[in-house]
Amino acid sequence: MTARGDVLDDLQARGLVAHSTDPDALRADLEAGPITYYVGFDPTAPSLHVGNLLQLLTARRLQLAGHRPLLLVGGSTGLIGDPKESGERVMNSKETVAAWVERIRSQTSRFLDTEGENGAVPVNNLDWTEPLSTIDFLRDVGKHFPVNRMLARDVVSSRLESGISYTEFSYVLLQSLDYLELFRRHGCVLQTGGSDQWGNLTAGVELIRRAEGARVHALATPLITKADGTKFGKTEAGTVWLDPDLMSPYAFYQSWIQAEDSKVGEYLKQFTFVPVDEIDALVAEHQEKPGLRLAQRRLAAEVTGLVHGDDEVRAAELASSALFGRGELAQLPEPTLAAALGEAGAVELSRADAPTLTDALVAAGLVESRSAARRAINEGGAYVNNERASDPDLPLADTPLLHGAWVVLRKGKRAVSGVKLT
Questions:
Q1: What is the pLDDT of residues 97-125, one digit of tens each?
Q2: Which residue in 27, 6, 11 sits closest to 270, CA to CA?
Q3: pLDDT single digits (tens) 334-358
Q4: Dihedral angle at the C-alpha atoms of 114, 68, 217, 263, nearest 10 degrees?
Q5: DSSP per-residue codes, 149-192
Q6: How far is residue 230's CA from residue 68's CA, in Å, rounded to a whole number?
Q7: Is cis: bond before 34, omega within 30 of 0?
Q8: β-strand partners of 407
Q9: With DSSP H G I counted as helix, E B as strand and the rest as coil, what are the percentages for the chain, rounded to 5?
Q10: What is the SS3 assignment for 379?
Q11: Would the pTM of this model clear 0.70, i.e. be above it?
């Protein structure tokens, strides 16, 4: 367990501090603590993603040091949406946002303890914005926001030519009001968030100074990027979601296994609770034997375990081995097998069409033609459920079907796909 004040050193050692309003004052308050802090999430989608995960884990680090977290899910700000540089957000219905609030609240509660003196407290900003009149909002909040400062914000200035609605323009007032209300209701003195939220975070600090004459803090984590500078958390298939209904645990695991060598140490420090000195030693070992991907495997196991549990880690590791002939395919649970083959580009074939092994290899994209399929089989380079195939005309339905429907196909050592017979 990290001491209350030392948590700031740990955050810095892990590369988790991009900005802080007053590091020395924050350190003093953390050491004198415990303090109450908050992190917020807008329900603009049915699930959180890996960018949100970084905020949850940062909140967890502060909680482990003895401080008390407030987990805000924005039932009101989710109806508006933080301005995007790319254009106006699509507004979701109140019913949709309310349903997403509950889903996201359930997700956030898995990462922090809710019991004890510093147990996490869930809050919803709809509780204080819904009864607020327009007149009171303009008088009590709006008067503290100079328009020239709002226009100077990067996300606003970049949208002035293409256009930005008053709704999105006013988002910063709502988020700042959240901080003010949590300061008044819970004694909250720290807000954390991503560096892309820095303008909103500091606006809340300024509102509390103007309205209450109090000093509070903001801390922003850096934008997590890939080696080429693009945003981390996106794959070819799309966003890396935390909800297993939107992204299977196997696919989630694979997204971390694919971490670049130059970034894996950084991700280990930011997304896991492995001690920093242990990470440094692991990265050094990885650099000596990069082909073993020791750091990536540890990263994938740690993060998948945090999000989906140890059972899903074992299933993903087993699937990764079994698909390439280093484990028992029959031991894989069907959801894991289906997810793994789905990632590999599996196809569905009808039993009524009586497909052969040759047909399956072509349909699964492992070969370009039927003649290439026959050649691969005759040369001993094709495998069915990790067994070398010998008959190009073998009916696929006569192979040992996994879970009564699935066939794993492999060409050579690395090219894997599959078929589901329907």
A1: 999 999 999 999 889 999 988 999 999 99
A2: 11
A3: 888 888 888 888 888 888 888 888 8
A4: -60
A5: HHHHSHHHHTTTTT---HHHHTHHHHHHHHHHHHHHHH-EEEEE
A6: 34
A7: yes
A8: 419
A9: 50, 15, 35
A10: coil
A11: yes
